[in-house]
Amino acid sequence: MTTAIIFPGQGSQTVGMGRDLHDAFPAARAVFEEVDEALGESLSGLMFEGDEDELTLTRNAQPALMAVSLAAIRALEAGGAWTLQERAAFVAGHSLGEYTALAAAGCLALADAARLLRLRGEAMQAAVPVGAGAMAALIGADLAQVEEIAKLAAGGEVCVVGNDNAPGQVVVSGARSAVERAVAQAPEHGIRRAVMLPVSAPFHSPLLKPAAETMAAAFEDVTFAPLAVPVVANVTARPVHEASAVPALLVRQVTAMVRWRESVLHMAAEGVDTLIEVGAGKVLTGLARRIDRSLSASSVGTAADVEGLLAEAG
Fold this sequence. Notes:
Helix content: 40-55%
Structural class: alpha/beta
Shape: globular
Distance between the termini: 15 Å
Strand content: 15-25%
Oligomer: single chain
Order of helices and strands: EHHHHHHEHHEHEEHEHEEHHEHEH
Number of strands: 10
Number of helices: 15
């Protein structure tokens, strides 16, 4: 069995996530405490029993999802029977999940990851006025179809593929009017369903260039340590082995397409047969089955899940 550990992106957040990890494992509790200290507020309180709308805000959801995933990883590693370096051939994360993967692989300190994701969320939201940008999922379409639709719908505005998630699930991102045109034109191209997404900004589109510039400046003050496990980058769908390559890839990631389908296929081509999604929700587990049915995919997001995986590890 060759395993890759994968980490979810925005949209997987729910109030209550991580609470049982916090209560069951001292190592997980320490993660939430460190994230709270790094941000200067009780993000864990918002996560465990706060308002769902407030948790869904990009500035909160991004560091919160990272915290849950890292809490589970630290709980798994606490006893020494399961370590990421020994168990994983690769790590990867969807969008903000790439920061989680880098933290899990030892490249980013936990506190730095929390602060960077808070800044990233704020910068993404500030880059485009609320309501000016949008994203939409085109269900049943392949990448080439959606690229053509986005090109036709642009009309001089920004409309690009933001996420290539899986066969039949490709997301366009850009100016709201252009994205709405893409949705309207989808049936003409044989796309069975096109749905506007409930997001606050046109993620992974050129409209977020100001956010990319903000992150580039922030990375100048961050230490990127050697990677214990290769991280498959969103923008290249290829593994990164050297920490020096990471900042530029993360800057590009803000405005570039998330090549998740290709990332999973590359890991499979490199011999990975098992994917374990660590953190909140099971979105990536579901996508894995659509990308390559031969892959075994499962999720670890609760205290019971952690205990189960540790029992399997012996």
